[in-house]
Amino acid sequence: VGRQRFHPLSNTPDWSRSSRFVAFTLKDTARSEFLYVAFNARWEPADVRVPRADSCVWLRVADTALPPPHDFVPYNPPPAALTASGTYHMPDHSTVILCAAM
Predict the structure, then answer these.
(1) In 18-92, which ranges are E strands?
(2) Is pLDDT larger for residue 92 or for residue 83?
(3) What is the pTM assigned to this prediction?
């Protein structure tokens, strides 16, 4: 993995002990792939801003808020692309993993 970046829920990152949300992207520079991982341990839902990943489209790999078997999507065949809204709705106490590749 080449680099990582954290993404706050609001404009300012909250690194306090009471924070219940963390999101980050990992970029594999050798393969031009991105992974977006978000954990919402809050007691309320969150609409997260999914970052741009160059000219890639984000694909949902896992969403723990969805009922089985929709909570995890195998990468082969690839999962459906997300909408271009730039946000993803996360219910409380959920985890999301998105993948983008060139």
Answers:
(1) 21-28, 33-40, 46-49, 59-63, 87-90
(2) 92
(3) 0.81
